[in-house]
Automatic annotation (TrEMBL):
Residue stretches of biased makeup (Low complexity): 1-18
Transmembrane annotation, as ranges: 37-61, 82-103, 115-136, 148-169, 218-238, 245-262, 292-312, 384-404, 416-434
UniProt protein name: Lipopolysaccharide biosynthesis protein
UniProtKB keywords: Membrane, Transmembrane, Transmembrane helix
Length: 463
């Protein structure tokens, strides 16, 4: 079996002046890391990767040892419905042929950096495919499910900590190590700068005045919200069992989480957290797990008391009273779909396009005194619209078909990991409409799918 350092039974004995036996030499060789170590490098080291500017790239880098491990195994299993995912990847690559084709309603002309953006996104698609197969092909003995759950639980704590940092030190930012060594022409690129320049928060004027939204340790406020919601089910799994300190840590972290969640001004996150809590409570309660009901009721009461007795209540109400982006989002979605259907309904355009003009001004574009005049590019503000615009109706159908196929395979499974995994998929489905998810959120979804698929396969083999 791969991942084993060598024979542990070698005696290592020497006979006089004779050369050491092969087993003795082998016994002195450094022990290779066990299976699953790339995940530990990614998640346990994530705060370091954020500070050094590698947080967006460590997932891609660790795909290399994962691929090598799969290669050594020879036979690689795939989940049912994987053919749809492979076809989606092929369709995604076909989009490269459309990168310099003008899209209806988009700004005409070719931008050379589209190739860089396309390659970056393609690398992410490759990476999330690799982690699905990597986790799914490792056995429970090689990579225990509990270990993966705890790694994702740790990421929830890191995300909460980053959110608190954004609330307490909203103006904190600094150049990363990667930013210092890269050429200025590259590090000042808008996309690259957002990925390698650590910031605790970003500012917005949603409420009619400047307010900070936490983003650390990610690049965008919506990424912070999506990651928090997708890591949460694994945090609940990891801390609903075990020693007393784990049970004490759970409510403490959830209460601390309330501050950055409200200060994120993220209505989509609020809705998904409510949906996820209701789903997991219902599923675990049906199993007869009393801890789920106690946690839900006790948690709701505690959160309401803290919420009502703090400034968070006023901020929450202000955000609900200022749905500034609803109309603009709806218009952008409509133009995105129409542009795709007119210009390239089958393959899409490979990447996003800047919109001609804006919904607020014929001249278009953000300008002093009218920050809201700027409109996000076609194919943004929701991964569903990105899929449609960049990969066409066929590509979007293949992507969604694979996700639906995997959800259908597990939604009745009473196992606790399957319940958490289906909660992740439901949250992801809602986020598809409003957030761009092609990085860490989709990576987490693929790990959840892999854990559920691996358990399903082992049950069949055992039965």
């Amino acid at each position: 079996m791969s991942g084993t350092a060598g024979s542990s039974s070698s005696s290592g004995a020497l006979a006089g002046l004779s050369p050491p036996s092969p087993s003795a030499v082998e016994g002195r060789q450094p022990r290779r890391p066990g299976p699953g170590w790339p995940l530990s490098v990614i998640f346990l080291g994530f705060p370091l990767w954020w500070v050094t500017g590698f947080s967006a790239f460590i997932f891609l880098i660790m795909s290399v040892p994962m691929v090598l491990e799969l290669w050594r195994r020879g036979t690689v299993r795939v989940p049912r419905g994987f053919a749809m995912w492979l076809l989606f990847l092929v369709w995604m690559l076909l989009g490269a042929l459309m990168l310099f084709v003008d899209a209806p309603y988009g700004v005409p002309g070719a931008e050379p950096n589209r190739i860089l953006v396309f390659a970056y996104r393609a690398a992410w698609y490759f990476s999330i495919t690799v982690v699905l197969l990597y986790v799914g092909n490792l056995t429970e003995e090689e990579l225990p499910t509990e270990r993966v759950v705890r790694l994702l639980s740790f990421m929830f704590v890191v995300t909460v900590g980053g959110g608190l940092l954004g609330v307490l030190l909203p103006h904190l930012e600094f150049p990363s190590l990667l930013e210092l060594v890269l050429p200025k022409s590259l590090s000042r690129n808008d996309l690259v700068a957002s990925l390698i320049h650590p910031k605790a928060a970003t500012s917005t004027t949603f409420l009619g005045y400047e307010e900070s939204r936490p983003i650390a340790p990610f690049a965008y406020a919506n990424s912070w919200g999506a990651n928090l919601a997708l890591f949460l089910p694994f945090f609940l799994l990891a801390h609903s069992r075990g020693g007393r300190w784990r049970r004490l840590l759970l409510p403490a972290v959830l209460l601390l989480c309330l501050w950055p969640v409200i200060y994120s001004l993220n209505r989509g996150l609020w809705g998904v957290l409510g949906l996820g809590a209701a789903y997991m409570t219902f599923r675990f309660a049906r199993k007869g797990n009393k801890w789920a009901l106690r946690l839900a009721v006790g948690g709701a009461v505690a959160l309401l008391l803290v919420f009502a007795g703090s400034p968070l209540k006023a901020l929450f109400e202000q955000r609900l009273d200022t749905p500034h982006s609803n109309e603009r989002r709806g218009q952008l979605y409509e133009v995105t779909v129409v542009s795709t259907l007119i210009g390239s309904p089958v393959v899409g355009f490979g990447s996003t396009r800047d919109l001609q003009g804006s919904f607020a001004s014929v001249g278009g574009g953000e300008r002093p005194g009218c920050k809201g005049c700027g409109v996000p590019p076609l194919g943004t503000q929701g991964s569903l619209w990105f899929l449609i615009f960049s990969h066409g109706t066929v590509g979007a159908g293949l992507f969604l078909g694979f996700m639906v196929r995997r959800f259908a395979a597990h939604w009745r499974d009473p196992d606790r990991v399957a319940i958490a995994g289906c909660c992740v998929l439901l949250s992801f489905a809602v986020f598809l409409l409003i957030y761009d998810l092609l990085d860490v959120p989709l990576y987490t979804v693929m790990i959840a799918l892999a854990l559920m698929w691996r358990r399903e396969r082992m049950e069949v083999a055992g039965g």
